[in-house]
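Recall the central idea of this unit: under ordinary conditions, the amino acid sequence of a chain determines the structure it adopts. In this exercise we apply that idea directly, starting from the sequence alone.
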Amino acid sequence: MTGEILAPLGGDALLGLLVGLTTLLLTARVLGHLAGRLGLPAVVGELLAGVLLGPSLLANVLPEVAGLLLPSDGGQMHLIDAVGQLGVLLLVGVTGTHLDPGLFRTHRRTAVTVSLCGLLLPLACGAGLGLVLPAPAGDAPADRVVFALFLAVAMGVTALPVVAKILTDMKLLHRTVGQLILMAGTVDDAVCWFLLSLLTVTATVGLSAGAVVGAIAALVGFVLVAATVGRVVVRAVMRRAARTEGPGATVAATVIIVLAGAAITHALGMEAVFGAFVAGLLARSPDPAKLAPLRTVVLAVLAPIFLAGAGLRMDLTALRDPGLALTALAVVAVAITSKFVGAYLGARLGGLSSQEGLAIGAGMNARGVVEVIVAMVGLQLSLFDVEMYTVIVLVAIVTSVMAPPLLRLTLSRVRVEPEERRRLLRMEGGEPTPALRASPPP
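Accordingly, the structure predicted from this sequence is:
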């Protein structure tokens, strides 16, 4: 209300927030370190941190201990979620600053074929599977169709935040295959978020021509404005920030631009992550080394909190039911196979080698927390029950855990090109050596 001063957070609320953040970050860092010792990226341990602390293990076996370590109050958990959301937006935004726009011009055909094949095949397989499985909302034709389409979207997504973290942890962000995975994953997720918004409207108030036209107009309008006016304004801001001594101005400008992009897409009814990534694409600094402090904080602190927090809502104890376990195996098998085969075929049609195609198939398969978000929406709309929600979450965990070792295995057989070495130097703020300078970067 006007004139009323809101009291600052304090007392038990502040204590619960601090203890919860400490628990999540400490557990995520420890398990991330252990994952590294086992030859896996830290993201694997960070994802499992929340699973171990949540109802899948600690909250189920020792609820008193879990209650001391993590807040049980919904308001305090929302505060932790807010920190995690900040982490994922900055993670995706910083990843966008490392994407090479010139790569799309030189690999346009490959990016398009990977996006199309890696999306259409999982969508078709997911919809077919949804028509066979029992629909929690009922067997009415309309309910079954909406359920099948929701399952199709869950199959089609690629978890951009998790893929970005995996590629960063494995130091693969400069590889052409890594860049193509991010490009194709961005397109696929943008389409899936668009479909998800339409399905949400259909499940609540029914589908109308106005809803479809409005969603398409919002998506196209945002991309066009970002590519024209936004591109000019953001580049001017980043150039001015880069002229300031020290990294502070560049870091602040990048954070503001990324959060503004996220806010705009969220206000337009799209996913905030999409806006953050597009804003990151625009906010490429002339001096990439000045973004090193931001990368360190995001990757070492904020991203682990986000990944661990996402695992808190995963309850895998329901898989003790044999019937549900068989359903889960079928869904996991269809999800993995359709995405892998689709992305692989797209890569081969785009002119990549067999090993590069296998690597893209492995990277595109990571569903992570985006899959969880789709499952949560389905649960909120009563299109998924708790059992189906758990199955979809299992897909997110399995695909995120299997992606890193497969990426390492397949990319170890792909030769590092001079273009990739130049890209790595640009990311680290260095200058190409004379031998690499002969062929200018795209």
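The CA atoms of residues 30 and 45 lie 8 Å apart.
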